[in-house]
Please model this.
Amino acid sequence: MKSLQQSKSDETELMSDSDYFVHESACVDAPCEIGSGTRIWHFSHVMSGVRIGHNCNLGQNVYIDADVEIGNRCKIQNNVSVYKGVVLEDGVFCGPSAVFTNVINPRGFIERKDEFKPTRVGRGATLGANCTVLCGTTIGAFAMIGAGAVITHDVADFALVYGVPARQRGWICACGVGLPEAVSEALHCTACQREYRLDGDQLQALAEIEI
Model:
């Protein structure tokens, strides 16, 4: 991962020598770190202090706020805003116009930067188009958030949730296929053959999942 320290006047030279791509219309504020193979597209803005992993893709008009952490192989689609306090682990997919927040009770005339609440999205999770994630929540690994959902509470690993407010509707495999309704503690994906074990309200994969 390379650190971006140069001034704006040096940006063109830096991009030509780097192992990541920044479109000429995008703005990347130094200092920040961008991993190899990452692409940042038209009119996007990455603020200072951001860390972006390897092989990520930031679509058009994406905003990444100061000090945000993004893991490897994340895909952030057009018009997504990722605000300060958010952490995206490896392999997260953010659908078009997905929105994060960082203050639970904002007012335009009251400064609340010292009240930011952290949000974490676990590895391999998917956020559907136009969903909203309220701050202070954790979305579990490989969870699937439906389009237009509003997340107000923590989401379990492998949970399928949608609605306003979002509620869990079932379980989903790491491959993105819904798991059949459990008839015992064992669940089996008919698409990729992965196996899971249901322990109360938590689902666990029986083998390591690579992304």
